[in-house]
Amino acid sequence: MFEDIFRQRLTCVLQSSRTARSEEDGDSQWDAWGPWSECSRTCAGGASYSLRRCLSNRNCEGQNIRYRTCSSVDCPPEAGDFRAQQCSAHNDVKYQGQYYEWLPIYNDPDKPCALKCLAKDTALVVELAPKVLDGTRCYTETLHMCISGNCQVVGCDHQLRSSAKEDNCGVCSGNGSTCRLVRGQHKSQRSQNKLEDTVIAVPYGSRHVRIVLKGPDHLYLETKTLLGQKGENSLSSSGIFSIGNSSIEFQKFPEKEILRAKGPLGADFTVKIQYVGNTESIVQFFFYQPIIHQWRETDFYPCSVTCGGGYQLTSAECYDLRSGRVVSDQYCHYYPENIKPKPKLQECNMDPCPASDGYKQIIPFDHFHPLPRWDSSPWTACSSSCGGGSQLRTVSCVEEDINGQVNSVEEWKCMYIQKFPVVQPCNLFDCPKWLAQEWSPCTVTCGQGLRYRVVLCTDHRGLHAGGCNAQTKPHIKEECVVTVPCYKPKEKLPVEAKLPWFKQAQELEELLTVSEEPLFIPEPWSPCSKTCGSGEQTRKVKCQVLLSFSQSVEDLPDDECEGLKPQTEQACYTGPCSGETVEYNLEEADLLYTNLRDFDELYDWHYEGFTECSESCAGGVQEAIVVCLNKQTSEKVDESLCVIHRRPPQLLKVCNPGPCSPRWEFGKWSVCSSSCGVGLQTRDVFCAHLLSRESDETVILGDKNCPQPKPDNVQACNQFDCPPDWHAEEWPQCSQSCGGGVQIRQALCKQRMADGSFVDVAENLCLIPKPNVHRVCEGVDCPTEWLASDWLQCSTTCGEGSQRRDVICRKMGRDGIPMTLNNSNCSCLPRPPLLRPCSFPPCAKLNRKELKPPHRQGPHILAVRKVYVQLKKERKLQFATGGQAYLLPKTSVVIRCPVRRFRKSMIMWEKDGKQLSSSSHVTVTQFGYIKINHLKPVNIGTYTCVAGFVRDNFVIKIIGHNNKLIESSSSKQGAGIGNGISNEALRLKDDNLPGLRVNGSKAAKNQFFINHHDQYDAIILRLLEIKGWSRDSLDSRESQASTEKDFTSVEDASMESIIPLTFVIDQARLDEISKAIQQQTDDLKDVYATYVISQLVAEISKSKSDATKSKQKHGERHSDMSSVKPSFHKITTTGVSKLSSLEWSDSKEAIHLSKEAIKAPRILQKPNDKGLFLSADVIADVGHTILLTDWTNKLVLKCEAGGNPKPAISWTKNGQTLRYNHRIEILPNQALQILVPNESDVGIYTCTARSSVGSDSLSSKVAIAGKPVIRVSKHDLVNFNSTSVRVDVGSVVKARLRANITIICQANGIPEPSIIWTKELGPLGGNTQVFQNGDLSIINVTLVNQGLYSCHASNILGQVTATTRLLLQDLPRVSQQSKDLVRQFALTGSNVHAIFANVLGNKEVLSSGSSVLIGCPVKGHPKPSISWLHNGKRINTGLGQKYQILASQQILQILTITKGHGGDYSCIAQNEVGILTLQVTLEIAVVGPEDPTIGEQLIVSHHKKHTTGRPENSTIVFQNLSTSQSPLQSNYQWLIGEFMPCSAPCGNKGLQFPMLKCLRDNSIEVDKSHCKDKPQPDIHAVACNIRDCLPRWIVSSWSPCPQHCGGGTQRRLVSCQKVTAAGILLDLSPGFCAQSGKKPADSQTCNRQSCSEWSTSNWGQCTSHCVGLRLGVQRRHVFCQSQNGTKLPSHQCSNNTRPLSRQNCTSDLCTVQWRSSPWTPCTSSCGNYGFQSRRVECIHLQTDQQVREQFCSWKQRPMNWQRCNIIPCEKSECRDTTRYCEMVKRLKLCLLSQYKLRCCESCRNSSK
User: Fold this and answer.
1) Which residues sit opposite 1062 in a β-bridge?
2) How confident is the model at residue 563 (pLDDT cuts 50, 70, 90)?
3) Alpha-carbon dihedral sign for residues 1021, 1024, 1028, 1033
4) Which of 461, 512, 1093, 1271 has the most beta carbons within 10 angstroms of its beta carbon?
């Protein structure tokens, strides 16, 4: 039955496998794809193809070729059109017997991929080829390309058959969020003087631009590039134009113009319209504008606290997408689409502080600990008493601590709430104004008379008040004329018919209103006591005050009011009595009206109406106007003619008392943030609702209550271009940390434009000197180091051998030159090994019988498979690898590695898979063993001895107190036996069987060391428990009082005298016990384990007793240490007999052993007989490294495992469960199969065999193989300056002699390639050295080292070679040993002088008529060319044979010296490296006939002495001809281009500097940022424009203004000057500068503002802003006004001392004090979490009522929160210790330990 089921399942598996394979039959018939071909184009997008072969005899399904795009970079502008290049290739081929110049035909709808061309200047169109080259665009407007004659779809991602498209913003697969649509129309607005108008500005980067003009006018374009270049373009005809780095298509029609640009625009365009016709035009525009500024949310700011619960916020910053930098917020406000994200708030650092009670963890933000908030100071006094002023206050972010103390914190903590305004308007009511009533009738019935009116001074409420400007008071009396003629000649003055009008005006002037300050308030006058003639009037005057809280008026005693009490009586006159005839004259008036003199005078004061209301709302004032009038003519006259003390009082009245509607209030603009470019100014803008100006009651409302839009609170300022300035980068790190180096930075001349951007400008525009961009680092010598050469070849070609190498001690000097030192200087450094083993396949021998097993040919470790248990403290124990030890702490341990056929000095040690090195605690000796001093838990682990390719382990574990094992930091806590062995106690762990082999990653390897060798733990711990050994008793009984000695020598003889108490058990015995236990049933395992381990304990005890007796009997024999045989384990050895099943069955009848043979799983590791797997179908056994290639079609990993029961096979990749699919599957034989493996399949594959008795695993590494690749340099290197040159292989290197050259050969490949260096036509040379990393170093190069060097990198897949040609040159230098010079000078006669030129210049005196040879002793490589100069002019040897050049131009011969030969002679030696100039001066003495011998007496040679005393040839100056230096290891380099514009148009200071260009691949100009790290070549300026300048006006600075107000005059000097070509400044008459324009002004007015002074109002009432007990603040208005009383801005009075506007005063409102309530009950009766609170109020001491806390702010607020009951709780009592437990229970927080502890009772009930 079982076989039937198995056969059925196998059939299903085979059927599913066939089905899966049938789907892939199409691909299985093909060979693997071949490599990709070269790209059909080098730029602008080409095509590459790959081929494959059909492996079947019949036709294969599918294509044998596939394509992909490549070279998708833009072509340089000079590359031209690809289709046009193909057409032009036929220009040299005759068509129908004639040559044509062919032009391309684009966008053919029928055959877009055919090469159709048009013959120039003809209509002939010919198809020159059926298909264009691969990679040619099908259409000009798309990326689709022609491949093999077919048009293939190409997406914007440059991928074939891709559907990706650009959005309107030009972003591939974008969503259109990076731009905005701008559309609209512009209608022309003509005027007589307006010739053009601006339509719209189209910014840089805009796309899909379409401008349509309808009308007779004309479009006009202005451009400005990012570099600041401006242009103007007037398009007159249709066509495609290149304007502003953009392609513009223009179409012109009658009455219509269309402008299109696909974009992106390469400049800022301004579209203008030029008016031509008389009719109006309409311009329609449409384009997508890039949004280059967007909001970007920042990360969270740092937490407000480090512990105990805090908060943190985010912010938003405006980010410039084009420049990649953060800019001002105003740029993001420009786009309505940009919505600034709101700040986010989150809690942080919620862990309790060390000294905290944890309160914040429960309720982090409650009533007792509020969030930070904005706090404000009281408002300052209003800047104006009326007419509108402003008040200021400070606003800060505060936080209340646990004691109620309020402290200021950083403002970002309050960003989650709106900040209070810092400025508000005040006293917005109108100032008191004059109010004039209607005029009275004329006082006469005929002729000329007078009329009167009442003029009142009223405040903003319309009430009679004071404070009006007396100078603006309207007159109350004026003349009037009645047209009826009079017949009374005696009248001299007008008859005043209605005297009460004047009395009414006087009465109204005296009316006062009740205020909150005590004032005398007069009542109206009573009627006159007489009805005619003279009488008396009376009135009451009371001292009254207005009570603000009850709005009632109370009478006070007169002494409560200040000032004089107004009069209560006055005379009155009601007119003449009946029958009286009155003639008015001056004399009669004095007698009749003694108390009314003002009626008798000619001039008097009059009210003349009221002024307009000062405010439109919230209570304004009107002021009565008082003027001085001529009573006869009613004309206004000067106020000095009226009696000043009779001037009527100021009258005010309130007007427009209704509240104002909400409106925007503004603060002052701040100072501009930048002096040029573009700066920002900010101001406070808030919505205010003014209720009353009198009480200054203003309410701040939300922005939505005021008219929209809200006024700007940010504006640009100083928006003009800054002057160019240098912008230097920070100095980077030195190129080398030691041994010399340089620092190079970039300094650019930039100009900050008015839009805030920076533009690179020409360096000559920066007027200040350029900062230094190159400096030498402060060099220090590098420390000494060992430098190892490459390993030599292995000593054998088969079997085991060794490799050697040499090491030298070297130090790099501070100048970068390496110095070889004595090896003693590196003695303190670890010396690299000089010898290492190497191995090859075993050597083949003819006689197979004599062949030995392969494992005996290599190293072999003599491992000892034992388990050691230490029961007593020992100072030192020694072991050998292969075992496992359970030791006591503080024991010193020596682990040796006995090995055969291997040097002990080359043994390496590892711990837990990591290389082990010596430290203060662990010593790795050169004799192959390690020593651990005083065991600690950190020493627990697996120690591995590595001898070549073999290794073995030794495991150390430490026994702690109570017979428990101490856990290491890297191990997991194991399950001990404890008080009894459970069913699982002695079970073998699946992953930790003795036969486990791991071949995986480093992490897997470390995990193996951590979990391995713990299958004996349970047995050893139970053994200690059954025996009853106690660690505590052993420590107390056997503790050593003396200090432990540290044994440091393995050969310490004293160790033999110690009788150890350490026992050894064979690992095989423990494996047998463990297996026997596992074979028992679950109910018998525990009993059986106790039995067998007890038997083992008995055997150990018996062996220990026998060993003790043997020691006592033979003690003297063993006292001789020399007779003791060396032992790896100085311990008592026990021979434990094997387990007897008979004894067990006799003692336990019910227990029986399992008869079946149980075998743990074991994976069979087979040797690799095939070497590396590089075939198409790779079939390999697990355990070996697998290399994949491009032609690998299938990979099969076999995993064969044995065991009983049969184990199950599973596979993992990189430690993770392997996921299977159609490519990756498990075969019926449990092998892993991967079809068409690729790079995604690379990794570590592990096969695991697992059963109920254990597991085994084995791994294989799968990698991609490939032949080596060498990194090569594409640029030649020319460096004649440096003495140390490093370059990648692959270039031509030109360097100076005696330099140090390093050629880098970096090769990569799998398997790792080997590197060999060769030199063409000869050996490498004695001064060359090949390093281990493949670099070739040539020290102190000579001409012998010149040649071609080749680096060969090879592995099993192939070999690659890269070459470098080394060319050496030498600077021209002085050499006195020239053979040509010596030979020529030896042939000279007695009358021939021989002279050598030198650097300093000799002075030679020669006689005329003689001959001289001047030598130029120079040498160099290549040999320098020499030219001769006489007095700076080149010597021509062809003129009259005066000179001859000899010895390869090294000798200048003058045959017959004449006086004309005197002067300076120079020889210039020049080669590619530099220039050397030598000089000599000849003085000629003429010999007369009277003294023919004078020539012989002349001094032939008189050498010039150097002033410093140096030798003549001690200094040589060279001119370096190398103008460029290729960068090392880069594809970019600098190139000197054309000259910049001249720095000056005239004069003598004009300079031209060559421009530097950055080239890529020595051909393509790219952005200069690519070359910023490359050294720049030296550039030299050239003089230019050296000519006279045109005359021009020169002005000096303005002189200081002589007046600070009222107007002054500034002057400056203006002169006409001219600069000559010699740099001389000439003063000319003004007529010479007439062509330069109008002469500038030499004077101007300044400080025209009016002079001003501070003025104050009366002190106001004592306010409620308390500063102490009963102390308030009193304020008054301080304002700036002109001398005539006109109010001015405050800054115009800034030069004067401002009076005080605030003082302290006594106020009952400030009779306040803090009052605290009793503390609430404590929230906890014990523990550390209890707290209590209380109410703290501000109380008025007189009324005992609560007032606002700001009245008590002058005194510190008492604490309203404190801890309580900080006492430990009793552990036995489970109760709630906080009143928040109900909330904790409801929120289900009882799972958290801190809440469960404080709410024990509630949480206990909730769990039920």
Assistant:
1) 870
2) confident
3) negative
4) 1093
What pLDDT digit, counting tens, does each position of 151-188 carry? 999 998 888 888 888 888 888 888 887 888 888 888 87
Go through the chain and tell me how many residues it has. 1808
In Å, what is the CA distance from 1001 to each residue of 954, 1239, 1255? Answer: 21, 18, 19
Residue 1782, phi then psi, degrees to nearest 5: -65, -40
Q: Closest Cα to residue 1095, out of 1151, 1152, 1136, 1058? A: 1136
Nearest to 1481 by CA among 1493, 1494, 1463: 1463
Could you give the count of Cα atoms lying within 13 Å of 480 in the half-sphere of its Cβ? Answer: 20
Q: How far apart are CA 228 and CA 220, in angstroms?
A: 19
Peptide bond into 264 cis (omega under 30): yes
Q: What is the mean pLDDT of the chain?
A: 76
Question: For residues 1242 and 1263, is the Cβ–Cβ distance under 8 A?
Answer: yes
pLDDT of residue 1353: 92
- C-alpha–C-alpha distance, residues 66 and 147, integer Å: 10
At position 140, the amino acid (one-letter code) is: T
**Distance (Å, rounded) from C-alpha 1614 to C-alpha 797?**
97
Nearest one of 865, 863, 862, 876 to 1062, comparing CA atoms: 876
Please give the Cα distance from 268 to 362 (Å, whole number): 60
Q: Cα separation of 974 and 970, whole Å?
A: 12
| Amino acid residing at 932 | I
Q: Give Cα separations from 729 to 323, 734, 772, 773, 1569 (angstroms).
A: 17, 14, 11, 9, 12
**Residues 1395-1446: pLDDT tens digits?**
888 887 778 888 888 888 888 888 888 888 888 888 888 887 654 557 888 8
Residues 1304-1323 pLDDT 10s? 998 888 888 899 999 988 88
CB-based contact 368:1735 (threshold 8 Å): no
**768: buried, middle or exposed (CB in 10 Å: 19+, 13-18, 0-12)?**
exposed
Quote the CA–CA distance of 1132 and 117 in Å, as a whole number: 103
Q: Which residues pair with 450 in a beta bridge?
A: 479
Q: Helices 1067-1078 & 1017-1027, crossing angle to 10 degrees? A: 90
| Separation of alpha carbons 673 and 680, rounded Å | 5
Q: How far apart are CA 1735 and CA 110, in angstroms?
A: 92
Distance CA 1301, CA 1311 (A): 29
Asked if residues 659 and 469 have their Cβ atoms less than 8 Å apart, the reply is: no
Is 698:426 a contact under the CB 8 Å cutoff?
Answer: yes
Alpha-helical (H) ranges within 534-631 are: 586-592
Query: What string of H, E and C letters represents the secondary structure of 1211-1250?
Result: EEECCEECCCCCCEEECCCCCEEEECCCHHHCEEEEEEEE
**564 and 519 Cβ atoms separated by less than 8 Å:** no
Q: How far apart are CA 149 and CA 207, in angstroms?
A: 32
Residue 329 and residue 712 in contact, taking contact as beta carbons nearer than 8 Å: no
Residues 6+ apart with CB under 8 A from 1418: 1372, 1373, 1374, 1375, 1378, 1424, 1426, 1450, 1467, 1469, 1476, 1478
The first and second tokens of residue 480, run together, are 């009037």
Q: Report the distance separating Cα 1713 and Cα 1755, nearest Å.
A: 8
513, pLDDT greater than 70: no
Q: Which of 943, 966, 948 is nearest to 894 (CA)?
A: 943
Query: With 70 as the cut, is the pLDDT of residue 1458 above it?
Result: yes
* Residue 1077 amino acid letter: I
* DSSP annotation of 1322: B
- In degrees, to the nearest 5, what angle opens at C-alpha 1386 toward C-alphas 1385 and 1387? 90
